Model the fold of this input.
Amino acid sequence: MVHRGFNRSGHDIFNFYLINANTVGTYEGCDNRMKSLKSGIYPGGFASCFVPFTTYSREELMRTKIHRSCNKNAIMVTDRAGDACAALIMQDGWEMKKDYPVW
Done:
């Protein structure tokens, strides 16, 4: 077994964010995913435009084109690839499926 270390986002660190929908602004060029945003706790944080990862499909969460997606080759912001993994686990019924990204 290969030891891959501890404290890695998407493996043993998962982010959750508390959102107040009344204070979320709008951003030029962002899609309509923000219109349905409600106050609450969101797993996995946000992609570009501060859109919660819970608004993305499973396939989108694993793609590399989304900032901080659940993919080792994701576009990273301050070395934070894997932030979307909490949303992916939530969509998968709170389990890590066979195709869960491991890096």
